[in-house]
Amino acid sequence: MRDKYPQILEAFASTKVPIFLLGLVIFTAAIFTGSIRLKLLIEAQGTVVTLKEVLSLTLIGYFFNNFLPTSIGGDVMKAYYLSRKTGKKASSYASVFVDRIIGMFTMIFMAFLAIFFVEEGVVDPALRYTIYAITFGSVILIVLMTNKKLAQKFSFLFFLINPIKEKLMKIYEVIHQYQYQRALMLKSFLISFVSQILFFTSLGVVAMSIGSRIPVKDLLIKTPMVSMMSLLPSINGLGLREGSTVVLFGPIIGHDKAFAMSILWLLVLLCISVVGGLIYAFSPQFKIKMKDIDKAETA
Fold first, then answer.
1. In sequence order, what are the residues at sequence separation of 6 or more whose Cβ sits closer than 8 angstroms to the Cβ of residue 134?
2. 187 falls in which pLDDT band (50, 70, 90)?
């Protein structure tokens, strides 16, 4: 990419700030919508929370993503602080986990639908079969979450995580109960579709801010791949997200602009995480005391 530095700098210089800010606003709307989904899942466990509280937890999760491994490291902190409020560790971690799974499955399913209706030859075969494989894996995961008898056949794998086996079993029991709340799950998936559409749109608008237009089918098919890459071990997906953005979107808008878009998207995430950091710094309920850590370790 070094030979592309002049073009990359030119792309940054041509950034239309109002359009970039519009992308930031749309992504914020996606976060707000996703928080509504999490609120429903939390309240299904008999805990009353306000949308403000859930939104604060979500933003704090983005803040901690900057310091913890993978782009889901913030989910752990989100579940931790939720459990401090509710006093229910298993249900807190389960609701955050289910929220993440619904979001990821919705994104992958939308990519699957998009690629299913795209003609052969339009999409790279490797990408097509990768999405098929991830969709299949996602379906298997959901089946295991909802079919306890089938899941028990894989219980021999617990020797790998024996120290936390009992805690994970409690979380699994809570997760398993969600399948009986069909109205809730349907509503959660519908909300998730709206949230993902806003997310895809925000990325497309950020690309437009540097004069690039990404076809809808490419946003639907390739954005989930970028998100999946950010789940691999890294700090907030840094490097993996930018590299995969260049690889996947470079052939469409040019590698220089794809790299510029990835940096602008990182800026969007940083803006959101700064808000989360301010909430964390100035909200007393998020302060960790040493005695709380000792209790968590002995629990």
1. 108, 224, 228
2. very high
Q: At 32, is the pLDDT very low, low, confident or very high (cuts 50, 70, 90)?
A: very high
35/278 Cα distance (integer angstroms)? 18
What CA–CA distance (Å, rounded) separates 181 from 271?
36
Tokens 């009992």, residue? Answer: 166
Q: What is the rounded CA–CA span in Å between residue 179 and residue 237? A: 31
Residue keyed to tokens 């237009």: 213
Q: If you ran DSSP here, which 8-state letter would residue 70 be given? A: S
Residue 110: partners with Cβ closer than 8 Å, 6 or more residues away: 193, 196, 220, 224
- Rounded Cα distance between 43 and 55, Å, is 14
pLDDT at 290: 35
CA pair distance 278, 276, nearest whole angstrom: 5
- Mean pLDDT on 170-178: 81
Which residues have a Cβ under 8 Å from the Cβ of 55 and sit 6 or more positions away?
31, 32, 35
Question: For the chain, where are the alpha helices, taking DSSP H only?
Answer: 5-13, 17-43, 51-64, 73-86, 89-116, 125-146, 148-152, 165-177, 182-208, 216-229, 240-253, 255-282, 290-298
What are the φ and ψ backbone dihedral angles of 88, each rounded to 5 degrees? -120, 95
* 220-246 pLDDT tens trace: 888 888 888 777 656 656 677 888 888
Contact 131, 225 (CB under 8 A): yes
What one-character DSSP code corresponds to residue 288? Answer: P
